[in-house]
Each structure stands twice: as structure tokens, then as C-alpha cells.
Design goal:
The strands form 3 sheets. The protein has a 5-stranded antiparallel β-sheet with strand order 8-7-10-5-12, with no helix packed on it. It has a 4-stranded antiparallel β-sheet with strand order 1-11-6-9, with no helix packed on it. It is built from no helices and 12 strands. It is globular, with a radius of gyration of 16 Å. The chain is mainly beta and 155 residues long. The protein has strands at 8-9, 11-12, 18-20, 33-34, 38-47, 52-62, 64-69, 93-97, 105-111, 116-125, 131-137, 152-153.
Length: 155
């Protein structure tokens, strides 16, 4: 399935009504659920269209979010020799939390065109407002993308 967005927000009121629904690609049929105190994990594949350094950015997380990238790091899978990252970095994760007060966190990875790289998004909400914002920038561009259509696929 095509994944449209990796950004999430619930809408809560001061009357303690915490209700939300997940994006359609989660296959949860759009039903609302209590969004106070929950963990959400999504996995899929990021398809690199050009070779070079990709920048992934977590803009905000309330309360915590972790993005893991690459075979064995996001999840064990497939032909791992085709999913390993060609980058000198040793840590293929980026996380952000409420205590960072909106400070953006980035991860840069060198990807090869035409390859699919495992990606995992974990999000934890502890209380009340639940939100995280995730975007990416491809090599040669100067603006971030929030629309993951055609870039991230999930089963």
C-alpha cells in the first residue's frame, strides 16, 4: 500500500475527550479510539528514486517518536544485502520528544537509487495531546516533503 503521510495529530478537548483515528493505510477502518496513553508502530519500505544523501526530519513529537532506518535496524527482513545503508554513519535512528520543546531532529543517510529500505516509525503518547511530524528531503532539493505517496510502501 502507498503511505500518504507519516505525520499524526489527535484532537483533544479540556473535557478530557481524547478521540482520534489513524491514517487510512493502517487499515483500522477509520474508527475512532481513545488516544490517551497509547503506542503506535508502523513499518514499511522507503524507495530511493535517486542516489545520494536523504535527510529525514522529526519536527515535533508529543510525547515521543523514533524513526529507524535500514535492514536489521528497522526490522529484520528480506534480502538484507540489498537493504543495508551505504553511509559512514553508525546510528540509523532519529528520535524526538516533548522535552525538546519543538527542536527539530534530523537523520542523514546515503541511499542508492532503485532500492527499498526498511523503515519503522514508533510513536508513544503518554497523556493528552498526541502529535508528531515527520518529513524528508531528497538529494538536490532544498525543501522538505511531507507527502510520502510513491516513496513509502507498507503491507
Amino acid at each position: 500500500k502507498n503511505v500518504e503521510t507519516l505525520t499524526y495529530t489527535n484532537y483533544w478537548t479540556k473535557q478530557n475527550a481524547y478521540s482520534t483515528s489513524l491514517p487510512g493505510y493502517f487499515g483500522y477502518s477509520g474508527a475512532s479510539f481513545d488516544s490517551d496513553h497509547f503506542t503506535m508502530v508502523g513499518t514499511g519500505y522507503f524507495k530511493a528514486t535517486v542516489s545520494g544523501i536523504y535527510t529525514f526530519q522529526l519536527n515535533w513529537a508529543d510525547d515521543y517518536s523514533l524513526i529507524s532506518f535500514g535492514a536489521d535496524n528497522a526490522f529484520p527482513c528480506c534480502q538484507q544485502q540489498n537493504g543495508h545503508l551505504s553511509t559512514p554513519y553508525s546510528d540509523y535512528t532519529v528520535s524526538n520528544n516533548y522535552a525538546n520543546n519543538g527542536q527539530k531532529k534530523t537523520l542523514q543517510v546515503n541511499l542508492l537509487a532503485g532500492r527499498n529500505y526498511p523503515i519503522r516509525v514508533m510513536y508513544v503518547n503518554i497523556i493528552q495531546l498526541a502529535t508528531f511530524s515527520f518529513q524528508f528531503m531528497i538529494p538536490g532539493e532544498t525543501t522538505y516533503r511531507t507527502d510520502f505517496t510513491g516513496w513509502v510502501y507498507s503491507g
